[in-house]
Fold this protein.
Amino acid sequence: MSPVREVSLTALREIRRNLASTKGIAMSVLFFLGGLVPAVLYLAATKLQGGVTEAPEVRQQLMEEALKQKGIAADVAHHLASVPPQLAQLFKGTLIFAPFLILLIGFDQIAGDIQHRAIRYIAGRSRRESIVAGKALGLWGIVAVLVLILNVTVWIVTLIQGGSPVVSVLSWGPRVWLYTACACASWVGLIALVSSFFKTPIVALFVGAPVFFGLWLTNVILEYVNPDHPARWALPFRYEELLTSHEPLKVLGGVGASIAWGALMVALATVVVKRRDI
C-alpha cells in the first residue's frame, strides 16, 4: 500500500472515530454554543440599544479612522475595517482559544495508542510515519470541521442581525474560517509531537499545557521587547499576524508558513515514534 493511501486511511479513521464518539459530539455542541451564545448576546445588546443606528458604510469609515489613530497604515486600516466586527472578534477569539482546545482534543492521539498497544496492530499494516502523519491530518480535519461549525453559526446570526452587508459576510466568512483552520495546523503538529513522547495520555496533557503556555508567554515577551524581533519567526504567532495583511502574498505566506511549521512538528513526531519501542 502506498504511503499516501496509508495516511489518508489513517486520517479518515481518526476523523470517524473522534466525531462519532461522545467526545466528538460534546465538542461539536461546545463549538456550536461557542459561536451561538456570544453572537446572540451581541444581537440582544444591539436590539436593547435600539438596533443598528449607523449604516455599514459609516461604521466602516469610523472603524478605519479608529485604526489609523492606533498607528495602523491607511491601506491596512481600510482592509481591516471591511471585516464585519462579529467575524473580526471571532477570528481573534478563535486564535486565542484554539491551541488549548486542540490540546484537549488531541493530547491522546498517539500516546493513547502507545498506552493500549494499539499502535502495534496498526504498525503491522502501515508505516509508522504514515500513522503519525495520518493521525495529525485527521486531527486537523476534526478541528477544521469544529471551527466551521463555530463560524457558520456566527455567519447566520450576523446575517439575521443585518448590521453588515450580506456580500461582506459571505466574502469574509469563508476567508476567516480558512485562515483560522490554517493557523490551527501549527498547533495540531505541536500536540502530535508532545503526544509522541509519552505512553500515558494524561502525562501528555499535563506536559502539553505548559508547553503551549510557554510558547505564548515567550511570544508576549518578545513582542513587548521588539515586535519585529527575529526570534518571533520561530513561533507560529508571527505567521498568524500575516493572515490579517492586505497583501495577498503575505497572506499566502502566513498560510504556507503555518502549515509548514505544523508539518515540521509532525516530522519530528515521526522521528520520535520510529525510535520508540512499541
Q: What stands out?
A: The chain has two domains: 3-47+83-274, 52-80.
